[in-house]
Amino acid sequence: MLTIDIVTIHPGLFQGVFGHSILKRAIASDCVKIRLINLRDYATDKHRSVDDYQYGGGAGMVMMIEPLVRCLEDLQKDRNYDEIIFLTPDGTLFNQHEANSLSLKENLLLICGHYKGVDERFRQHYVTREISIGNYVLSGGEPAAVILCDAVIRLLPGVLNDETSALSDSFQDDLLSAPVYTRPAVFRGFAVPPVLLSGHEEKIAQWRHEQALERTRLRRPDLLK
Ligand code: ADE
After folding, report:
1. What are the tens digits of pLDDT across the range 46-75?
2. Which residues are CB-contacts of 105 (< 8 A; sequence separation ≥ 6)?
3. What is the CATH number of domain 2-153?
4. How much distance in Å is there from the Cα of 25 to the middle of ligand 1?
5. Is 138 near ligand 1, meaning CB less than 6 Å away?
6. 143 lines ligand 1 (CB under 6 A)
7. How far is the CA of 50 from the centre of ligand 1 (A)?
8. DSSP state, 42?
């Protein structure tokens, strides 16, 4: 079973997301175990501080190395992490391949950054992977952690009802998905492509592949390189 530990100063942010839909079911059916760890529990002062001014001056606070290492070393007493992942806009861009690869691990630790960033010594000496979910800056790593968890958890065996459905997702073969339709066959004159009503499996599969290729060519030519 995959376990994901998440270090955050806002554990409450995760409650809603993990309490609904596919992620809730995945947790309830023991496909994944998620633990939320409040970094402030590892602060040493009475204000439970986890950040401080940056050396050299400049605006913005920096997350201190001490609470992070105390927290990590405490967690490592009962977990041997495959990856210690720091979510940060200057990490490598997250994609489906990365999600596939992380879904095969057993113990992941996600660390959500805040403020101006994290003391570089923590990144250099403790973090094993730095991941960004996109070329934009969030106010904290939590939404990025949620997205990473969602992309990974839905790939775990038993999470999706139809085991094949994750395999036919967009990006699994570096192609976007073909368009999909459901009833009615005609809505206000807008008809479903006739091939889908033909019952001819081979032709349908071929049509879907062509559509996926065409859509990828038009929208994401970078994926076809
Ligand atoms: N924290 C802030 N912005 C982020 C991003 N784009 N990806 C991952 N973590 C982040």
Report:
1. 999 999 999 999 999 999 999 999 999 999
2. 2, 82, 83
3. 3.40.1280.10
4. 27
5. yes
6. no
7. 19
8. G
Q: How many Å lie between the centroid of ligand 1 and the Cα of residue 167? A: 27
- The architecture of the domain spanning 170-224 is Orthogonal Bundle (1.10)
**Residue whose structure tokens are 């990473």:** 148
- CATH 1.10.1270.20 location in the chain: 170-224
5 CB-near residues (< 8 Å, 6+ apart):
34, 35, 37, 75, 79, 81, 107, 108, 109, 110
| Entry pTM | 0.94
Distances (CA, A) of 55 to 39, 64, 120, 127: 22, 12, 12, 21
Is the CB of residue 108 below 6 angstroms from any atom belonging to ligand 1?
no
Q: Residues 18-54: pLDDT tens digits?
A: 999 999 999 999 999 999 999 999 999 999 999 999 9
**Spacing, Cα 73 to ligand 1 middle (Å):** 24
